[in-house]
């Protein structure tokens, strides 16, 4: 796990420390779950593009599910 953290920190080294953690944490968790934590530093899994994709999908899910819940469950059908 430490190697993955070092790799992510190296990829996003231009960002402040807090932002590096917010970008790196979901990627490290996914890499650990999928067993990709031993990927070489120059692979796609260790790239900045992979981090952006994972964070984008996570953000879409985290904002989309509550929005759908609010629209269809809480507010109900407004077509009446």
Distance between the termini: 54 Å
Round the Cα radius of gyration to an integer and report it. 17 Å
Would you count the extended β strands for me?
0
Secondary-structure element order, N to C: HHH
Uncertain runs are none
Explain what the structure shows.
The chain has 3 helices and no strands. It has 80 residues and is mainly alpha-helical. The chain has one domain (2-74). The termini are far apart. The mean pLDDT is 78.
Structure at a glance:
This protein is mainly α and 80 residues long.
Keyphrases for this structure?
elongated, mainly alpha, 80 residues, single chain
Task: Itemize the secondary structure elements and their pairings.
Blueprint: H1 2-11, H2 17-34, H3 48-74
Helix pairs in contact: 1-2, 2-3
């Amino acid at each position: 796990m430490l190697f993955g953290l070092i790799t992510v920190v190296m990829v996003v080294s231009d960002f402040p420390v807090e932002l590096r953690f917010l970008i790196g944490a979901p990627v490290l968790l996914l890499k650990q779950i999928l067993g990709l934590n031993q990927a070489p530093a120059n692979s796609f899994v260790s790239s900045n593009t992979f981090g952006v994709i994972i964070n984008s999908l996570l953000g879409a899910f985290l904002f989309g599910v509550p929005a759908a819940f609010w629209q269809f469950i809480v507010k109900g059908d407004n077509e009446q």
